[in-house]
Design goal:
The structure holds 3 protein chains of 3 kinds. By secondary structure, chain A is mostly helical. Helix content of chain A is 75%, strand content 0%. Chain A has one domain: Four Helix Bundle (Hemerythrin (Met), subunit A), CATH 1.20.120.80. Chain B is 33% helix and 19% strand. In chain B, the strands form 3 sheets. A 5-stranded mixed beta sheet of chain B has the order 3-2-1-5-8, with no helix packed on it. Chain B has a 5-stranded mixed beta sheet with strand order 4-10-9-6-7. In chain B, a hairpin with a 2-residue loop joins strand 1 and strand 2. The two termini of chain B are 43 Å apart. About 2% of the residues of chain B have low confidence. Chain C has a single domain, classed as Cytochrome c oxidase-like, subunit I domain (Cytochrome C Oxidase, Chain A, Up-down Bundle). The longest helix of chain C is centred in the middle third of the chain and has 35 residues. Chain C is globular. Chain C starts with 18 loop residues before the first helix and ends in a 39-residue tail after the last strand. The chains are: A mainly alpha, B alpha+beta, C mainly alpha. At the A-C interface, helix 1 and helix 5 of A face helix 7, helix 8 and helix 9 of C.
Amino acid sequence: MSNVRHHAHHFDSAQAEFEASKQGLWVFLVNEVLFFSGLFVAYAIYRVGNPDLLKECHHFLNWKLGATNTAVLIGSSLTMALGVTYAQKGEQKKSANMILLTILCAFGFLVIKYIEYSHKFHDGLLPGALFHNHELTHPKAPQFFSIYFVLTGLHGIHVVGGIVVLFWIWIRTLKKEFTPEYFTPVECVGLYWHFVDLVWIYLFPLLYLAS
Amino acid sequence: MFFVTEALANNGLPQQGSEYATRFDSLYSFLIWVSIFFFAIVVVGMIVFAIKFRNRPGWKAKNIHGHTLLEIFWTAVPTVLLLAIFGWGWMLYRDLRAFPTDAMEIKVIGKQWLWQFQYDDGRTLTGEVYVPVGKPVKLTMTSDDVLHGFFIPDFRLKRDVVPGMHGSIWFEATQEGKHQVYCTAYCGTAHSGMLASLYVLNEKDWNDWKHGKKINVAPNELPLAFGGSAAPSAAPQGGALSLVDQGKKLSQTKGCVACHSDDGSARVGPSYKGLWGSQVELADGSKVKFDENYVTESLYEPNKRIVKGFQPTMPTFKGQVSSEDINALIAYFKSLK
Amino acid sequence: MSTTTHDSGSNYLNHSKGIMSWLGTLDHKRIGLMYLWTVLVFFFIGGVAALLVRYELIAPGQTIMSADAYNKAFTYHGTIMVFMVIIPLIPAALGNFFLPLQLGAKDVAFPRLNLASYYVFISGAALAVTTLFLNGVDTGWTFYTPYSIRTGTSATWVLMGAFVMGFSSIFTGINFIVTIHKLRAPGLTWNRLPLFCWALYATSIIQVLATPVIALTVFLLTLERAFGIGIFDPKLGGDPVLFQHFFWFYSHPAVYIMIIPGMGIINEIIPVFSRKTVFGYTAMAVAIFGIALVAFVVWGHHMFVSNQSDLANFLFSLITMFVAVPTGVKVFSWVATMYKGSIHFDTPMLYAFAFLFVFTIGGLTGVFLATIASDVHLTHTYFVVAHFHYVMVGGTLMAFLGGMHYWWPKMFGRMYNETLAKWTCLLIFLGFNVTFFPQFILGSRGMPRRYYDYLPEFTELNRMSTHGSWMIGAGFMIVAIYMIYAIYKGKVANSNPWRASTLEWQTPSPPPHDNFAVTPVVTSGPYEYHD
């Protein structure tokens, strides 16, 4: 059964509109890469200027929790990819389930993050002027934790944003708004979510695993 | 338009206070000539074409798409020229960064809103620095609070002064006399009042000054809003300044005017006007008489007892004002009824 | 092929009525107009700040305000002019209006994103401007640390405002890139693309790549002010110069966001009013991208005296020189375009002449600043102030005025008073030079910038500069008056009064809601005239 999808009047075809939307999201992701890279540069500067900074500080990060979170996010990327595939195939119920699983993984990530953060607060491993831990005595430790909190914090905000848009497409999927001819929002949210995952995959070894 | 000719003399640059300045001015002159040349090509070309090819009956435009050789030419020639200019600029900069090992070092501290200069022998000055002519001098600078910038136009020399680190500049002055120093990194309220005078002394004056003898120098210049006068006064002859005038001069050279006015208006600090002999209210509500003792204490331990409504930001002048200086200041305060 | 049609029937202006049809519009032309009026209001506020600053400087000593008030005045002048005027001005106003038209498209790729970008813009601007009624901000538009950490003024609100406004820039950039990729009319190949579109394309790429860095920078500074995270504050172990690197990594490419669209407009005007194609079309397009590319690797030339390493100084000075090469190529090509053309002296072309005059001076004085030894003397002085006003006001603003006079008949179907326009162009041109040329000399003679007060030797040149500011102010007011008058009472214009050949002129003036009754098919280049 052919289902000719209506498209916005300024596009020639639904296909052109779909490609334009994907392209727009890719351009947005490039912009996001630049946003995070500024922090990675700050990290690099402090690391190069203080060779033993990472070695001393990373002991105070919980790599087990970090690794768990990495697994959770990778898993969520898998469920997200499946969600997109099912949407493409028109299998709306399966797509909705996969999207829901992704949301749950995202919440799981945030819960683990919360546990990590509360340990840090308790131990005084805080940014800049708020730092008050007596075991860790490296003079630039407050800067390390500034970068740690801003990097993981901004990433966390992007996870929250991801939950919001994931919830949005979950509801729309349940309302049967997507078909094999039109699933653009699912595709775009999927791309965004993979990006959020990718940032963490860079972030985790750089902060948690010293070499 | 006399001021224009004066301003444009030496290509709009100030007097040449050092040998480096002379070499700098050659590069600057070259830059001006190159600029005039290219400006002329563009603007004269544009005017000539506009007139010669103006729209008129019988004249039809020729659709020229380009000219590869010409385009290569006007890409290659500027590239070569710019590289040459870069090279010349770099050679001069290298000289600025080649610190002579025998340079006399003076430490500079910038703080809101004055400059302090510390010599090796421990002497500290505020708002003025004395150097010998013809000898290399190195200034090692840091800030106590925010970014400042140290700029000596006559020497074509400038560097930011950053809190938490030290940076250095060096020069060898060839011209005796007073050279103006400005702060060039915006630092708050009195940024444009944060000036200093750099005095280049001949051998005799330098020896005299080093041994604590008084020498005659042109007075400090400050902008009107920060205690300056509309026209810079001539240097006094033979130490004929009254005690009151000495005090007024000190209030300028030591940087007091950056924060204290003499006309009743409150700045960062209270105005001196009408203060002498009065009871001033302190932050904790108690009162103290504004007399010789309070003045001395304010200069040496400024934040011990602060006038109500003001912040504890005044720096100490311990070691920078002598007993005679304090007496002159007191005479000045007394005169401000 | 050009057609001339009178159409006073249905167009985008009368297509739907009522304030909600404007506030909720998805029509790029209406969004462009909303941006235009909003930005011009900010231009007025920033301009008043400038006049106040210059009036204070007319004589030594206090003239009309205290030092603190002055420091706030120049900060607002800079912040408003940079973030709320000159960055959005050409792309968001004229670009939004004319990009789809020049491409033969019905709208931009993402009309809702377009409207969103407008509301994001005014939200950020509101955040920043409300501080005028609070403590104000006095850090200079560059927010250098540590002063910007310590100042008790409402700096945080302005920083947050800049953060929000940045998203507007990013959204516009994304929209334009995808629009140019996906919505060109049949036959509109890359080498037939109008140079204004090429300019918007390069600008959009810069917006998308550079703006996130300033977002991060103001975000980190806000955290520093609020929580003392210690990244920039030396008292907490941070590096204040690191802030400058972060800041200029965006703000240098940002100046190309400002000028490249202006160059795009000049690229439209000169061929039309010379009745011949642009000289060296390919080189012109390549030069735009050359400039955009080099723009990203020269930020350190704002920091030659910041105590960064000599190696950094070497590299930044060397690479900065290369910006002048593509820029020179463009300037020479503009003049060469006039060669054996048939020159018409309508107001848009007069602004193009003015642009060439002042932009050349601005560009050449950039070489003084790129040369490292010369910059050590000139940086942080009025020479820099003169340089950037020559390129930003002399360059971008004159190009904008040229574009306004060029496209006004298309936007409103009305012509302005040509005689008045010509004389006002002269007034603005003269006033501009009287204001800013003396500042080169003030700088080289040693007057630092951001100075509330100055030594007596600088009086005459300052006074001259202030008089010039009154000339510019008067000129802009006159332009505003006759342009607004023209909308209602101007002579009716036909669809192509300048006999141009780009697509926006092949549809009625003002354009219909859907831009083109029939999607145009392009068979020749953008600057082919058959007079």
